[in-house]
Amino acid sequence: MVKPRVIHFAIKSITLMRKYLLVMES
Question: Whole-structure pTM over 0.90, yes or no?
Answer without folding.
Answer: no
